Automatic annotation (TrEMBL):
Residue span(s) of domain TLDc: 1-195
Protein family membership: Belongs to the OXR1 family.
Family matches, as Pfam families: TLD
Major location (coarse): mitochondrion
Keywords in alphabetical order: Mitochondrion
Superkingdom of the organism of origin: Eukaryota
GO cellular component terms, A-Z: mitochondrion
Source species taxonomy: Eukaryota, Sar, Stramenopiles, Ochrophyta, Bacillariophyta
PROSITE patterns registered for this protein in UniProt: TLDC
Xref: InterPro entries: TLDc_dom (IPR006571)
Subcellular compartments: Mitochondrion
Entry protein name: Oxidation resistance protein 1
Amino acid sequence: ESLQNFFPYSISEENFWMRYSLVKHGASMHSLLPHVRGARYTVVAIETTDGEVFGSFTGTAWKNNGASYFGSGEAFLWRLRQSRNTPCYSIVDLAHHESELDIYPWTGDNHCVQFCSNDTFAVGGGGISSETTFGGDAAIADDEKKEYGFGFALDNNLLHGTTSNCTTFGSPPLSKVHADGSPFEIVNVEVWTTTPCFSLEDAEKLQFGKLFLERHATI
């Protein structure tokens, strides 16, 4: 819920609705995309085997867009400051740990926000061109010789990923354990959206109606 403080005002009071869970729905892009179809605002949460938790908030519905980026400046990256492996001695300790976040909003330096292909699910990128695509997302170095790339990128089975310094959000590697760019292993991936509804049934009806209107909209 700490993330809601950074949402656009129009959805800041809405309820969370989990649309996808790797544990529940299966570990593949083919499982993820149908479950999040049509959800404009989404929170991606990734938990690694090291207990680190991080992810993104984005404002454009996820889709397989081939070799091109998409998305809007409403997006940001986030991470829990402390690993879930950090000892907690009370519910108060746990709540405190879960509420301590680092937030990295869009810098405006490029438009490499969301990326989704057959092989890669990613947020953020390196370089300064708004036309950057996956093929052009090779890491670049600044005066301090930092290499820039995806804020995070997951492979198509959603079981491994990498994280880098990211121009799009001015963020460091989201994983402190794998700040060198080495792959991290994933325990779970969840994708949440927001809804004004108070029941799952009503949320599903509202979403179905939106998809129906989009599918049958005339130009």
